[in-house]
Amino acid sequence: MTPAQAEIGIFGGSGFYEFLEHAVEVDVETPYGGPSATAMVGRVEDRSIAFLPRHGRDHELPPHRINYAANAWAMKELGVSRVIGPCAAGSLKAELQPGHFAVCDQLVDRTTGRKDTLYDGPEVRHFSFADPYCRELRPLAVTAARDHGITVHDGGTVVVVPGPRFSTRAESRWFQEQGWDVINMTQYPEAYLARELGMCYVNISLITDHDVGLDETSTPVTAAEVFAVMETNNDALQGMLQTLIAAIPNERSCGCAGDLA
What we know:
The chain is an alpha/beta fold. It contains 6 helices and 11 strands. It has a single domain, classed as 3-Layer(aba) Sandwich (Rossmann fold). 44% of the residues are buried.
């Protein structure tokens, strides 16, 4: 057991270091190597919180190089039972505008080659992932966003692509034709590995741009533009998270811890 323990975990950007009160650094060893960065454990709204920047402290890890297994294991080792996963996402629908939030309820994996299970054998287990996101945390996240005046979309499907490149116009059009809502590079296997470890997971997608397949005349998004929108919405996200954290009940009633099939 690590010396500092937490009940709620957050994967996010480096801007969250200032989010925690009375924070201490905690090194966590995992069977899968080191996590993206040293974990920080502190308090928010009188709850114990662990924070890990999924891309590393200086955003040095592209999506396909993130050690998702180590990150998830580190959260579990710190005592976390609920994980909040805010992330940048492109919009595949006109009504999801940059600056809006979406609390997704479904996920489609289009990644390749990522370590996406902790059970490689000889022990083999099969987990239900029919509903990727916690049914107890999702409505709390939607309510918290609305309480802060954020335009939030309740539900939606995130399609996860390998990155670090953005989509071609043809790929983006295809994703849109499937009826999917937003596109991201990190939700899988992050959300699934949390499930294998019995942790709840809730997604909060921050819409940064309209993906290129939405409009043939649209200018392709740049990484700088994505970061700029994220920075603009950082205060709103942190305020929402404070409200969400305070609203999370002490005891779970969702079943995320018992989905072994």
